[in-house]
């Protein structure tokens, strides 16, 4: 299965989550607080119909945040792909800059990141 999910970086992810609930009747299926500041979110997932939107608080301590070039990236794309390692390697060969090497996550999935030549931060993931 292959899918692309928008990853929106905002100043207040909890407020953004509330907006999605109000505006789209979104179902919040996951909220992960930042370990060093539980008022902030390092990751959240909202389901709107059959689609998902990921969001997190922007800034250098947000874990998944990356400067591009001097400001936090506001929209990231999350791609679920059959082979994260291969997609990551092809992106780097195509001119992308590595943001994070592909590695095994706590849930057994494989995840890596790169910034494409146009400044978009992509995360490629293969489920466990």
From TrEMBL:
Top-level taxon of origin: Bacteria
SUPFAM superfamilies: Glyoxalase/Bleomycin resistance protein/Dihydroxybiphenyl dioxygenase (SSF54593)
Gene3D superfamilies: 3.30.720.110, 3.30.720.120
Domain annotation VOC: ranges: 1-127
InterPro entries the record matches: Glyas_Bleomycin-R_OHBP_Dase (IPR029068), Glyas_Fos-R_dOase_dom (IPR004360), VOC_core (IPR037523)
Pfam family of the protein (one): Glyoxalase
Name of the molecule in the record: VOC domain-containing protein
């Amino acid at each position: 299965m292959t899918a692309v999910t928008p990853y929106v970086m905002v100043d207040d992810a909890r407020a953004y989550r509330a907006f999605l609930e109000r505006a789209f009747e979104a179902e919040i299926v996951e909220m992960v607080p930042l370990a060093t500041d539980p008022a902030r979110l390092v990751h959240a997932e909202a389901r709107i119909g059959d689609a998902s939107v990921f969001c997190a608080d922007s800034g250098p301590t947000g874990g998944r945040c990356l400067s591009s070039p001097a400001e936090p990236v506001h929209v990231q794309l999350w791609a679920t792909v059959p082979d994260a390692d291969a997609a990551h390697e092809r992106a780097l060969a195509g001119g992308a800059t590595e943001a994070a090497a592909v590695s095994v996550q706590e849930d057994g999935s494989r995840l890596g990141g790169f910034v494409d030549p146009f400044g978009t931060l992509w995360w490629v993931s293969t489920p466990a």
